[in-house]
Amino acid sequence: MRVLAIETSCDETSASIGENYKDKIRILSNVISSSISLYSKTGGIVPEIAAREQIKYIIPVIEKAILKVGKTEDVLSSLDAIAVTHGPGLIGSLLVGVETAKSLSFVFDKPLIPVNHLIGHIYANFIGEIPNFPAVALVVSGGHTDLVLMKNHGKIQWLGGTRDDACGEAFDKIGRLLNLPYPGGPYIEKNAKEGNHRRFNLPRPMLSSKDFDFSFSGLKTAVQREVSKLGKINEQDIKDLSASVQDAIFEVLIYKTISAAEKYKAKSILLGGGVASNDTLKNNFELEIRNLKLKIKLFVPTKSLCTDNAAMIASAAILAGSKYSWKNVEANPELYFE
Ligand code: KG4
Ligand code: ZN
User: I need a labelling partner for 128 at 20 to 30 A (CA). Which of 186, 217, 241, 304 fits?
Assistant: First the structure.
């Protein structure tokens, strides 16, 4: 099966052509265009601006993804379906992708495969080596922090999630407290590499709660308190606070994910979402799995497949999607794990 996939749930506009080759997913093209540089002044995404930019980008991005594979008519006629993220996300942004996908579906008479963005993040792990089930997946992005159990394709059970800020949102808010550019995550990672993670004793929220839930807003308040105590923060303070913040967030993520994996006898742990592109998170996970001598394989997508992209939507559509008529697909910003 070969699909053209479209992803426009937040500030990225992405199109990808993917197919299955034997039982593996092969990505033939994956074009991503971002409007993130426009938000350095506002310190966060402005939904109206994001959607307006996506209207400009969507056709050129799809055209580029097609031309990377071959001649437009040949590629379009080789498609078995059009896949699109239908939620969750920003309504204006989702509508750009969904309405474009519906038009293509109608004009070229191809079925439509709606894909849940969160499930897309998990399926970034199925590009390349296929993970074994049961798997425990941790989605850590700007809008979500969710832990789920995956018994098979389409068999997903939600185990827990954040009670307040999403993990990436915590990185972004703390980044702002440290005067770092938006989004804070990658800058905190960079600063943390030269920081002392033991200098600040930050809380590990909900580490000992018996559930699989998370909370990050208290950590932000704790960082705010440290910043106020310091008065004026210098470069070393920023580095040390960054390293301490990463340590606090990752300790909780790793502990809860591994506890869930042990409880449900998972063979694989799958990470997804922008925060999963952090090297320290991956290294600390591997270290803990080795220390505990667990027979669990950790999967982390390559960096460009951790943040929003259409290749992960192609992967989810091929392995776990269902075909619909364009008449029955709508954008749904509130969509969650079913
Ligand atoms: O998955 P994503 O691209 O978009 C959403 O669906 O939200 O995730 C974006 C989030 C941002 O909050 C960003 O700060 C965070 O991922 N992020 C990181 C890193 N790279 C991106 N957080 C920590 N370390 C990173 N290296
Ligand atoms: Zn995302």
Answer: 186
Length of the chain: 338
Beta-bridge partners for 161: 146
Closest ligand 1 atom to Cα of 183: 14
Taking phi over 0 as left and psi of -120 to 50 as alpha, with beta for the rest, 70 belongs to: left
Q: How far is the CA of 236 from the centre of ligand 2 (A)?
A: 31
pLDDT at 309 (0 to 100): 97
* CA–centroid distance, residue 94 to ligand 2 (Å): 12
pTM over 0.90: yes
Pocket flag, ligand 1, residue 171 (CB < 6 Å): yes
Whole-angstrom distance, CA of residue 307 vs CA of residue 124: 10
Two structure tokens written together for 169: 């949102």
What is the pLDDT confidence band of residue 338, given thresholds at 50, 70 and 90?
Answer: low
C-beta of 89 in contact with ligand 1 (< 6 A): no
pLDDT greater than 70 at residue 243: yes
Atom of ligand 1 nearest to the CA of 143: 7
231: left (phi over 0), alpha (psi -120 to 50) or beta: left
